[in-house]
From TrEMBL:
Full protein name: Tyrosine-protein kinase
SUPFAM superfamilies (alphabetical): Protein kinase-like (PK-like), SH2 domain, SH3-domain
Reactions listed under catalytic activity: L-tyrosyl-[protein] + ATP = O-phospho-L-tyrosyl-[protein] + ADP + H(+)
PROSITE patterns the record matches: PROTEIN_KINASE_ATP, PROTEIN_KINASE_DOM, SH2, SH3
Organism: Gallus gallus (Chicken)
Biological process terms in GO annotation: B cell receptor signaling pathway; cell differentiation; cell surface receptor protein tyrosine kinase signaling pathway; positive regulation of insulin secretion
Biased composition (Polar residues): 35-44
Native organism taxonomy: Eukaryota, Metazoa, Chordata, Craniata, Vertebrata
Keyword Membrane attached: yes
Primary localization class, coarse: membrane
Disordered: annotated span: 35-62
Keywords: ATP-binding, Cell membrane, Kinase, Lipoprotein, Membrane, Myristate, Nucleotide-binding, Phosphoprotein, SH3 domain, Transferase, Tyrosine-protein kinase, Ubl conjugation
Top enzyme category: transferase
EC number: 2.7.10.2
Length: 526
């Protein structure tokens, strides 16, 4: 696939003027896993206030808070035993190698990295906390995905690697202490679909889907329905597939030496630098932005980057680390399928059906709803700045560096302004708000539904500006449902305050096909 240069997004406070600068974007990727899907946001935003996500977590305490001397000190009071869910290769002399299935004693469980002792080898060291689970806990079951949302459960079960009969169990989003069973089924009219069943608990202990048949534990319930469907849509065939997660990024690895990075493959270039796929310490796959010297002041960049790294959501690209000496490097998570604009034009992307396109739109709306709640703005929302993982998870590149690009450098380079994506009030007055982002989101929806067509086909930028002033709006694209076009037109209302919120857009897009469907299947009947 040809890699194009493209411009990245900007996160800014939600009011005031913003310079018409832009910033090179990134092609990055996420290794999908049940740990990662569950870790960043337990709740997603939508029309229900209960679904609002929490504020970004405090920075992890990291490995630097425990001295090396503690490696020789076992805690006699702590007898917590965990089991390794995945293999883990040590990347430093402080780390402890993990072999899937081995048991370990936890000596300290602060932050994302835990100090542990292997009961197999007797060695001590640090392990990533998302690679282990308590012995005999539900978390060690392959089919248990704890805080996974209903929508993400559907996305995961419908992804490649799963088939009819694949299933998972998750905590109920609406009923405390209850669980939900999600199963992939086949429908002659709609293809493969996901059906959900409530798993209820008994007052005296135990669980059931149908009250005529109860079980002492969840594993017993799953075992039974794995042997026979017994009224479910399908017999439970195999747990939902999950790849090993990325190890957490340590808190003490923020400002890193340039020598720790190995640039392997150039992915793109732009006005302010290049984007590379590379490795950190030879074993952690990352994306690296290399900024041209003179494009920004290092001190201003570091101050902005420290704010940016606090924005954490599973629909925003994660900022890992920085190299602050010229030329500046920015290290982020790697997205295997590159930007959404390019992906939609590939053989695989061009075959995506309408429900998947709308689901991708809902994922972008979810990330923007988080930005909305954090009182920030994006300013350059378009398909070129949405990145796609190998599991088709869509993430918004979350860097707010445009305002610290040096004005002199901008004048020399001649920064381009994305007129066709920009709201009229931003074009005319240079004022960007979350409502101008909503306008851009409407344009992005047309990009998605047309598999990457340039907005306002056949029009020049001056023609677009003149036509918008006269009330013109892009007509409904071919194959775009009338209901979706109605949503798009709401994003393009002339008065910013009359445009919908991203919280509303997430809700309506997530429920685009399910608004009239029942939430759970009926209890199995004898």
């Amino acid at each position: 696939m040809e890699h194009r240069s493209w411009v990245g997004p900007v996160l800014r406070p939600s009011s005031g003027r913003v310079s018409r600068s832009s910033f090179i974007g990134n092609r990055m990727g996420l290794i999908g896993s049940k740990n990662q899907l569950m870790s960043n946001e337990k709740f997603t935003s939508g029309s229900n206030p209960k679904n609002r996500s929490r504020p970004p977590p405090a920075p992890p305490k990291g490995r630097q808070f425990i001295s090396l001397s503690h490696l020789n000190q076992a805690s006699a009071q702590d007898d917590t035993i965990v089991i390794a869910l995945y293999d883990f290769a040590a990347s430093s002399d402080r780390d402890l190698e993990l072999v899937k299935g081995e048991k370990l004693q936890i000596l300290s469980n602060e932050g994302d990295w835990w100090l542990a002792k292997s009961l197999r080898s007797g060695k001590k060291g640090y392990i990533p906390s998302n690679f282990v689970a308590l012995v005999d806990s539900l978390e060690q079951e392959k089919w248990f995905f704890k805080t996974l949302s209903r929508k993400d459960a559907e996305r995961l079960l419908l992804s490649s690697g799963n088939k009819v009969g694949s299933f998972l169990v998750r905590e109920s989003e609406t009923s405390t202490g209850a669980y939900s069973l999600s199963v992939r089924d086949s429908d002659s009219a709609h293809g493969d679909i996901i059906k959900h069943y409530r798993i209820r608990s008994l007052d005296g202990g135990g669980y059931y889907i149908s009250p005529r048949m109860t079980f002492a534990t969840l594993p017993e319930l799953i075992h039974h329905y794995s042997q026979r469907g017994d009224g479910l849509c399908q017999r439970l065939m195999a747990p939902c597939t999950s790849l090993a997660p990325q190890r957490p990024w340590a808190q003490d690895e923020w400002e890193i030496p340039r020598e720790s990075l190995k640039l392997v493959k150039k992915l793109g270039s732009g006005q302010f630098g290049e984007v590379w796929m590379g490795y950190y310490k030879n074993n952690f796959k990352v994306a690296v932005k290399t900024m041209k010297e003179g494009s920004m002041d290092p001190e201003a960049f570091l101050a902005e980057a420290n704010l940016m790294k606090k924005l954490q959501h599973n629909k925003l690209v994660r900022l890992y680390a920085v190299v602050t000496k010229q030329p500046i490097y920015i290290v982020t998570e790697y997205m295997a399928n590159g930007c959404l604009l390019d992906y939609l034009k590939t053989e695989e992307g061009s075959q995506l059906n309408l429900p998947k396109l709308i689901d991708m739109s809902a994922q972008v709306a979810e990330g923007m709803a988080y930005i909305e709640r954090m009182n920030s703005i994006h300013r350059d929302l378009r398909a070129a700045n949405i990145l796609v993982s190998e599991t088709l998870c869509c993430k918004i590149a979350d860097f707010g560096l445009a305002r610290i690009i040096e004005d002199e450098y901008l004048a020399q380079e001649g920064a381009k302004f994305p007129i066709k994506w920009t709201a009229p009030e931003a074009i005319n007055f240079g004022v960007f708000t979350i409502k101008s982002d909503v306008w851009s989101f409407g344009i992005l929806l047309t990009e998605i539904i047309t598999y990457g067509r340039i907005p306002y086909p056949g029009m020049t930028n001056p023609e677009v500006i003149r036509n918008l002033e006269q009330g013109y709006r892009m007509p409904c694209p071919d194959m775009c449902p009338a209901e979706l076009y109605s949503i798009i037109l709401r994003c393009w209302r002339n008065k910013p305050e009359e445009r919908p919120t991203f919280e509303y857009l997430q809700s309506v897009l997530e429920d685009f096909y399910t608004a009239t469907e029942k939430q759970y299947e009926a209890e199995p009947q004898p």
